[in-house]
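Blackboard transcription, Thursday session:
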Amino acid sequence: MSGNTEPLSPRAKLAVTAGKAAAAVSRAAGRGSGSVIGGKVALRLDPDLLGRLAQHLDVILVSATNGKTTTTRLIAEALQASGPVVSNALGANMPAGITSALAGGSDARYGVIEVDEKYLSGVARDVTPKAIALLNLSRDQLDRAAETRMLAEKWREGLAGTQAVVIANADDPLIVWAASSSPTVVWVAAGQEWKDDAWSCPSCGGVLQRPSDDWFCGECGFRRPAPSWALSGDHVLDPHGSAWPIHLQLPGRANKANAAVTAAVAATFGVPPQVALERMYAVQAVAGRYDVVQFQGRDLRLLLAKNPAGWLETFSLIDPPPTPVILAVNARGADGTDTSWLWDVDYTRLAGHPISLIGDRRLDLAVRLEVAGLDFRVCESVDEAVRASAPGRIELIANYTAFQDVRRRVGN
Amino acid sequence: MSDNSLRLVWVYPDLLSTYGDQGNALVVERRAHQRRLDVTRIDVRSDQPVPTSGDIYLIGGGEDRPQRLAAERLRRDGGLSRAAANGAIIFSVCAGYQILGHEFINDLGEREPGLGLLDVVSTRGEGERCVGDVLGDIDDRLGLPQLTGFENHQGITHLGPSARPFARVRLGKGNGTGDGTEGAYNDTVFGTYMHGPVLARNPQIADLLLKLALDVNALPPTDDRWYEALRAERIASATQPA
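(Written on the board underneath:)
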């Protein structure tokens, strides 16, 4: 099914051309990369275009609350060992952005596609994927998003009977619930630090028991499936019991988990773990995330964390005290306008770090940290926060639009 | 744990802790510690009995199915109702507020009995969800400054004769009944739709709960400059035209 065995229909070709023209106009007008507007124009001309473009590809879908952009990038890198890849690497992860990305890769064998959680079932129906990677589900932007458990329920319904191999995290009960309606699942013990969205059984509502790394429902018997792949410290364990060392430039446990899932996906397409893991080392930063930039004589590491689970994973990867930390939070549309989630984050983990607060909602952070009993400084700008920090490495953790603001300011 | 310790009970964090509800517990704890009060926080999971000897009970917001499960388990357990009969202080938010009433509409679209600790009945609104910043005036009898918070709910809550409105909104929907009321209270049982979390945005409400628990009229002052700065910003932002 790979390769360009069937040419696109004249209508599909016209749609692709019109989409590219619209994207070029959008770029020329200085309105972003143009990938979304291009995809919208193309989809209007040919609503089935996404499915048609995907026909010529082996499609891998990636969805999750956290880590989907990075994992998409890792999978794309790994599969290049086996053939050319097209991917929505910039994170435009709704149908228009996906269409636009696929239209740009007429010579590709693989389409590695990040999908927004809300669109997964629909995209999976349209593109007949060969594989679907599901990493984690947790609370995120509850003022505008679907309830977390409802999302798992929709995935479960949408993926029931899928032809795709589903590669899913056995350590997240909501992911297991979502994936276990699929006929073919490869379970990966990828870990999940955040547990507070899965205390009640997704199947029967009973209280989940969670002794150490295991979990099960004492009432209905829904339990953690036996994984065939696992993340174990700095190694990926494959189904044969071999341990493969993970060498990444990307920091943190969460990225090792992303690498373990990537190795399992790559193996599905015949790429051995050793080859996949070697290729993953090439990934240094993903859309500016994890990048270290020089700014005012300091090394500023830019870390994106959009929700409680993301902040928790980020705290575990930063350099120890006395490395200064800058926290940046906004509450604009793309962030979610409710800042209540800050209270789900355990900021006492930052004790000992000099802390500076910036962003539109720095006063929400100030009250949060005051109640956590931490010392902090409230700053008007990233410039002021950096100046107030000692020379050397600074860890900057920001949510979505705050991250974009900082990137613009520090020239990344 | 000493006998003099103030017992702060957080009810069912496994089901009703969706919108930063832990914040309310953290703020009460912090403000008690700042007054050198000894506090014991007791987090009660929904497969554990609710103790009846608590001083302050907090119950938070949650999604539709967990709300039904919480109501079922609280009715079966009976601990919170017995504590209320003993005069405990109960502060509830959103889904928890609806559970304290006579009934609400559950995730199956059916009428679900609550605990009847507040004289309110909740239904589900037909229109858009109420989402956004809220500004209101708290009932005069409570002697508290303006209410600031964030609401996110589909529920509409009607007050019966023995419940007083906790506040009247200037901005936002509150109870969603169109009469401007927000939340409800009766003696020491309180309900509100405010997230934020509400006690972080309104530390004087946390102090009110402490004063009721200690049966005192005043508490030593605390350094509230960050709370005040946040309140001023949110109130200004709510009153500014967008």
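Lecturer's comment: The longest strand of chain B covers residues 130-138.
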